[in-house]
Design goal:
Number of domains of chain A: 4
Mean pLDDT of chain A: 93
Largest sheet of chain A: 6 strands, antiparallel
Strand content of chain B: 15-25%
Largest sheet of chain B: 7 strands, mixed
Oligomer: heterodimer
Low-confidence stretches of chain A: 1-5, 7-13
CATH architecture of chain B: 3-Layer(aba) Sandwich
Number of helices of chain A: 20
Largest interface: A-B, 32 and 27 residues
Helix content of chain A: 40-55%
Mean pLDDT of chain B: 94
Distance between the termini of chain A: 40 Å
Strand content of chain A: 5-15%
CATH class of chain B: Alpha Beta
Chain lengths: 611, 220
C-alpha cells in the first residue's frame, strides 16, 4: 500500500468505515485544557502495513460493524493506515525548515499531553509528558467514549532526551533511543499479549487497537481506553501550583467519567463535593489496584509521579510491567541511575498519590495550596487503608476458589477467620530463600520459595480424595517452588505450627460456610477443586514468558498475517483466562496455530515461577 | 482387569456405557481421577466431566493433567483412586505426555491391579497395543503434532479400537484392507457405543463393528 492520505474532502457517507474519521486529532482535552498539551501538525507516513488489528476491541468501540468478520480487507487496511500512519512535524523539522508535500499533511493537529515524569530534571512537569505519543482523538459508541493514542509517532519536546540534552531531535535520530520518537513492533506485541491476558483477568488496562509495521522492526502502536488520563496529568500542574490548568484537568476528567457513567455518583451539589468525590474515587481505585498488584504479583513500578498508571488504576505503558510467578517481593529493576520500587512498596506509592488527590481537592475548593503533610490523617487516607485491607481479604478468598456469594458471606460473617488465614498464607507466600539478594539480568532479586498457587490448587482435591489433613512433609512437598533449596525447606517448629494453622483455618472457613449455608463438605471441596484449578492454573504468564513469546512471534511474524496474529492473541488470552466463571467456546484453530500455541504454552510453563 | 472404552458422543448417547461404568465401580463414595489429553483448557473439560458423573452420585474427583509437572503426593492419591478416566484429544500428544511423565507402566499396573481404567476416544485407543488407529485412515486422523515414532501404548487388550466410526463404504474399504495384513481385530464404534471389559468378559454396548481378516462384522 502506497501513499494514501486521509483527505479533508473525504465525505463521511462515502467511506466504508465512517467512525475512523473521528480519530483525526481532534479531542476535547485540546480545547478544555489548553495548558495541558502541545499541538503538532502531522504528515502521512509512507511504507507502513498493518501487522495487527484488534477486531474485538474495534467492535466494542464501534469502529467496525458488530458482524464484521475478523478478516483484514483492503478497505479496512487502507482506513487504518490513513488514520494512524503518521509522523508529527516537530520542532526540529520546523527549525530546520524541512519541507513536506502539502498533500501529505493532515488537516488537524494532534496533541501530546503534559504530565509529570520523575526522570525529567525539572521534576515539576513543566517539560515532561508524551515524548513519542500523540492522541488520535476519541470515539463514542454505545454510551461510551474511548480515547485513542499512538506511540511511535515522532519525538516531541516533552521527551526526557530533549530536556536533558537541551536540544530538539529529528524523529528517528539514531544517536538516541527513546528520545528519537519511534517505537518498535516488539513493544506493541508485548503490550498486546500482556494487556489482553490481564484484561481478561479483571485488570483495568490500556488495550492495543492496532500495530503498524515499517522497515527494521519500527512500528506505531495504537492504544485505546475509555479514559487515558493518568494521575501524573494532574500532578505537574499541582506541583507548579497552577490552579487554572489543574482545575481544567480535573473538570475534564470528571466530565469524561460522568459521560461514561464510570462512577456511581454523576451529579454534584458543589465543586467542593465534586473534587472530594474525585479524591475518594481515586482512593478506592488505587487502593484496590495496589492490593491486586500485590496479590497477583504485578510489578508496575508505581512511583510518586503517577506516570505508570491510569486514574482508575488501569495499567498503561507495558515497558515496565512484570508479572512474577511467585511473590518475589524484593525484586528491583535497575534503571541505571536508580533502583525501582518493589512490589510491596507500591502500596505506599499509591497511598502517596491518593494524598496528592486530597491535596488537589482542597486546593481546587479553597484556591489555597496547603502542604501535602497537612492531609496525612484525612478521612480519605483512612479509607485508603480500609479499601486496601478489604481488597486483600477479598482477593485471597477468590484465589482460594470461593465463588462470589461465599466470598461475600465469609467477609460479612467470618472476617476474623479470613484475616487469620491471611496471616498463615502470608507466612508462606513471603518466605525468602537463604540465598539472599542477588543480581538478575535487569535488576536484583531475592527468591520466594513457595508457590502458593500450587497449594491452593491441590489442597481441596487432596482433602476430597483422602478426607484427612496433609502431613507437614506433604504440605511442603506440594508448596515448594523450584527456587527452594534444601536449607530453605527445614521443618522448624514455627513452620510446623504455620502448616497446622494454614490447614485448620482453611477448613474452619469451609466449616463456617457449610454450617451457615447448609452445604456438605464434599460439595464445598468439589466446587473449590474445580474453581481453584482454573484460578491457580499451573501455567501462568510472567514478564519473562511474555518477552520470550514476543521473540517467538516476531520470528514467525513474516509468515503471520494480521488475521492470524489476531487469532493467536485471542487463543493465548483465552488460555490464560483464569476466571473460573468464564464460558469458553471450543473454536477449532488450524493445525499450524496449534503448533505455535504449543510452543507458547511451553514458554509459559518454563517461566512460570520467574519474574 | 476392568476397562471401559468409550468412543465419544454426548451424555444421552453414553447412558448405557455410563451405567456399566458405575456397575464396575461397585463402591460407595468412590474417587475418580480425570486425566485430560492436554492441560490446555483442561479445567473446563474437568468441570464437564465432574458435572456429568456427579449425576451418578460420584462426588470425589481428582484433576490430573500429565503434560505439566506434578507432585508425588497428588500422584499417590491418583494411584489410590477407584477409577481413572483418560480423556479425548490428540492421541499422539497424550501418549507422548504419558511417556515423558513415565506413567505408562504405572497406569498398566493400576489396571492390572484391579483399578477401573476408562478412556474416551484417544483415551480408549491408549489402552490398546499401539495407537496406530489414531493416525488411520488418512482422511480421519489425528495430526502427529509431536512427531512421535514409537506408538506402543498400554497394551491392555488384544484388539485395536477405532472411535467415532461412521458406518460407510469409505471406512469399510480402508479397514478391510488394513485387517487383511494385520492379525489384530479392529473394533470400530460409533459415538455412544463402546466396549466394557470385566475380568475376562468383553461386552459391547451399542451397535459396534468388527473388522478382521479383511471382513466386516456387525455386533449388536
Amino acid at each position: 500500500m502506497n501513499q494514501i492520505k486521509k483527505s479533508p474532502t473525504d465525505e463521511v457517507g462515502k467511506r466504508s468505515y465512517t467512525n475512523f474519521a473521528q480519530l483525526n486529532g481532534e479531542h476535547p482535552f485540546k480545547t478544555q485544557v489548553p495548558g495541558g498539551r502541545v499541538e503538532y501538525k502531522a504528515r502521512y507516513r509512507k511504507g507502513g502495513k498493518v501487522a495487527f488489528f484488534n477486531f474485538e476491541l474495534a467492535k466494542e468501540m464501534g469502529l467496525i460493524a458488530k458482524n464484521h468478520q475478523p478478516v483484514m480487507t483492503p478497505d479496512l487496511e487502507r482506513e487504518i493506515l490513513e488514520t494512524f500512519s503518521l509522523t508529527i512535524i516537530n520542532e526540529y523539522d520546523l527549525i530546520n525548515e524541512i519541507k513536506f508535500p502539502e498533500e501529505d499533511i493532515f488537516p488537524h493537529t494532534f496533541m501530546a499531553t503534559r504530565y509529570l515524569q520523575l526522570q525529567h530534571p525539572d521534576k515539576c512537569g513543566r517539560t515532561s509528558g508524551d515524548g513519542r505519543t500523540i492522541w488520535n482523538g476519541s470515539v463514542r459508541h454505545n454510551g461510551m467514549s474511548w480515547d485513542v493514542s499512538s506511540c511511535g509517532t515522532g519525538g516531541t519536546k516533552l521527551s526526557p532526551a530533549c530536556n536533558i540534552d537541551k536540544k530538539f531531535y529529528q524523529t528517528g535520530d539514531p544517536s538516541i533511543s527513546y528520545g528519537c520518537g519511534l517505537s518498535e513492533v516488539a513493544e506493541g506485541l508485548e503490550t498486546l499479549f500482556f494487556s489482553e491476558v490481564l484484561g481478561k483477568n479483571g485488570f483495568k488496562t490500556e488495550r492495543v487497537l492496532a500495530i503498524l509495521e515499517y522497515d527494521k522492526g519500527i512500528g506505531i502502536n495504537v492504544r485505546a481506553n475509555p479514559n487515558l488520563i493518568r494521575p501524573s496529568h494532574f500532578f505537574g500542574h499541582l506541583k507548579q501550583g497552577n490552579y487554572e490548568t489543574l482545575k481544567q484537568v480535573a473538570d475534564y476528567y470528571i466530565s469524561r467519567q460522568v459521560e461514561n457513567k464510570a462512577w456511581e455518583k454523576l451529579t454534584f451539589k458543589s465543586d467542593k463535593e465534586k473534587y472530594l468525590y474525585l479524591a475518594q474515587q481515586t482512593c478506592k481505585a488505587l487502593a484496590e489496584t495496589a492490593a491486586k498488584f500485590e496479590d497477583e504479583y504485578i510489578f508496575c513500578w508505581l512511583d510518586w509521579d503517577g506516570d505508570n498508571i491510569l486514574m482508575d488504576g488501569g495499567i498503561i505503558d507495558y515497558g515496565s510491567i512484570r508479572q512474577f510467578g511467585l511473590f518475589h517481593a524484593e525484586y528491583r529493576y535497575d534503571d541505571v541511575q536508580r533502583f525501582s520500587t518493589t512490589i510491596l512498596e507500591q502500596k505506599q506509592k499509591a497511598k502517596y498519590m491518593v494524598q496528592c488527590f486530597v491535596q488537589i481537592a482542597d486546593f481546587l475548593s479553597t484556591k489555597k495550596k496547603k502542604s501535602l503533610g497537612h492531609f496525612k490523617k484525612h478521612a480519605v487516607m483512612v479509607a485508603f487503608d480500609k479499601h486496601f485491607e478489604d481488597a486483600k481479604n477479598r482477593n485471597l478468598l477468590q484465589r482460594i476458589g470461593f465463588k462470589k456469594s461465599h466470598v461475600d458471606h465469609l467477609l460479612k460473617n467470618h472476617l476474623p477467620k479470613v484475616t487469620k488465614f491471611r496471616k498463615a498464607f502470608s507466612y508462606f507466600e513471603r518466605s525468602k530463600s537463604k540465598r539472599g539478594v542477588y543480581k538478575v539480568p535487569d535488576g536484583i532479586n531475592r527468591d520466594a520459595i513457595f508457590c502458593m498457587r500450587d497449594i491452593l490448587r491441590e489442597l481441596p482435591q487432596m482433602y476430597l480424595a483422602r478426607n484427612a489433613l496433609l502431613s507437614h512433609h506433604e504440605f511442603l512437598e506440594i508448596t515448594k517452588s523450584s527456587y527452594a533449596r534444601k536449607s530453605d525447606l527445614k521443618l522448624t517448629d514455627i513452620r510446623k505450627k504455620q502448616i497446622n494453622r494454614f490447614q485448620s483455618v482453611y477448613l474452619s472457613m469451609l466449616g463456617a460456610l457449610e454450617k451457615d449455608l447448609n452445604i456438605t463438605r464434599t460439595q464445598n471441596l468439589l466446587e473449590l477443586t474445580m474453581r481453584a484449578s482454573v484460578v491457580n492454573k499451573y501455567d501462568r504468564v510472567t514478564g519473562d514468558s511474555i518477552t520470550y513469546i514476543v521473540q517467538k512471534v516476531q520470528k514467525l511474524k513474516p509468515k503471520l498475517n494480521p488475521n492470524e496474529l489476531y487469532e493467536l492473541a485471542q487463543s493465548f488470552s483465552t488460555y490464560q483466562n483464569l476466571d473460573p466463571d468464564q464460558k469458553i467456546s471450543n473454536a477449532k484453530s488450524p493445525v499450524r496455530h496449534k503448533n505455535i500455541m504449543q510452543n507458547l504454552y511451553s514458554i509459559v510453563r518454563e517461566c512460570r515461577e520467574g519474574i | 482387569m476392568n476397562l471401559v472404552l468409550y468412543s465419544g458422543g454426548d451424555e444421552k448417547e453414553n447412558k448405557n456405557l455410563d451405567r456399566a461404568f458405575v456397575e464396575l465401580l461397585g463402591k460407595k463414595n468412590p474417587v475418580v481421577t480425570f486425566i485430560p489429553s492436554s492441560s490446555y483448557l483442561s479445567e473446563q473439560e474437568f468441570k464437564t466431566f465432574v458435572r456429568h458423573y456427579s449425576k451418578f452420585k460420584i462426588a470425589r474427583f481428582i484433576h490430573f493433567p500429565v503434560d505439566v509437572p506434578f507432585d508425588k503426593i497428588l500422584f499417590q492419591e491418583v494411584m489410590r483412586s477407584d477409577a481413572i478416566h483418560m480423556g479425548g484429544g490428540n492421541t499422539f500428544y497424550f501418549l507422548n505426555s504419558l511417556r515423558k511423565a513415565k506413567l505408562i507402566p504405572q497406569l498398566k499396573a493400576f489396571a492390572e491391579g484391579g483399578g477401573l481404567l476408562t478412556g474416551l476416544s484417544a483415551g480408549a485407543i491408549l489402552m490398546t497395543e499401539n495407537i496406530e488407529m489414531a493416525g488411520y485412515p488418512e482422511f480421519d486422523r489425528d495430526e502427529n503434532v509431536v512427531n512421535l515414532t514409537n506408538l506402543s501404548a498400554l497394551n491392555l487388550v488384544d484388539f485395536l479400537f477405532f472411535p467415532h466410526f461412521r458406518n460407510s463404504a469409505r471406512y469399510d474399504a480402508v479397514f478391510k484392507k488394513y485387517t487383511k495384513s494385520s492379525p489384530k481385530t479392529i473394533y470400530a464404534c460409533p459415538d455412544g457405543a463402546g466396549i466394557v471389559i470385566r475380568q475376562d468378559e468383553i461386552r459391547f454396548i451399542g451397535k459396534c463393528f468388527a473388522f478382521s481378516n479383511g471382513h466386516k462384522f456387525t455386533i449388536n
